[in-house]
């Protein structure tokens, strides 16, 4: 239980600056976008930033697991699995964003 709480605190400590930076918009327009493409772009940009942060944390967590495994085969297997799932998540996200761009390009959006 302590490990889960410590992990949540660590993730929160990394995510809080991202949330604070999202609230800061130095060159932004005072009016929100009303065009559907602008709204979709704003959502995708936010989701991409969040995804990159999560992917970075996942890969770093897998690295920490590798470092703390101390040669124990079971812990190395867990670390390898975490790393592979992190990479799989990155690949799925890149494919998902590519699909949006391909569909947008196809329909002329």
Mean pLDDT: 80
Q: Unreliable stretches, pLDDT < 50, 5 or more residues?
A: none
Q: How many alpha or pi helices?
A: 3
Strand count, sense and barrel status of the largest sheet are: none
Rg from C-alpha positions? 18 Å
Strand fraction: under 5%
How far the N terminus sits from the C terminus, by CA atoms, comes to 48 Å
**Count of individual beta strands:** 0
Shape: flat
Secondary structural class: mainly alpha
The helix/strand order is HHH
Helical residue percent? over 70%
Oligomer: single chain
Structural description of this entry:
The chain has 109 residues and is mainly alpha-helical. It has a domain at 36-109. It is 83% helix and 0% strand. The N and C termini lie far apart (48 Å).
Summed up, what is this model?
The protein is mostly helical. It has helices spanning 2-23, 36-68, 73-107.
Write the layout of secondary structure elements.
Blueprint (H helix, E strand, L loop, with lengths): L1 H22 L12 H33 L4 H35 L2
Helix pairs in contact: 1-2, 2-3
Can you give keywords for this protein?
0% strand, 109 residues, mainly alpha, flat, 3 helices
């Amino acid at each position: 239980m302590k490990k889960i709480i410590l992990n949540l605190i660590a993730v929160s400590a990394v995510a809080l600056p991202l949330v604070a930076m999202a609230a800061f918009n130095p060159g932004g327009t005072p009016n929100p976008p009303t065009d559907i493409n602008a709204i979709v772009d704003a959502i995708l940009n936010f989701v991409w930033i969040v995804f990159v942060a999560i992917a970075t944390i996942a890969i770093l967590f897998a690295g920490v697991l590798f470092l703390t495994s101390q040669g124990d085969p079971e812990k190395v297997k867990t670390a390898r699995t975490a790393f592979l799932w992190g990479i799989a998540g990155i690949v799925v996200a890149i494919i998902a964003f590519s699909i949006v761009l391909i569909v947008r390009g196809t329909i002329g959006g």
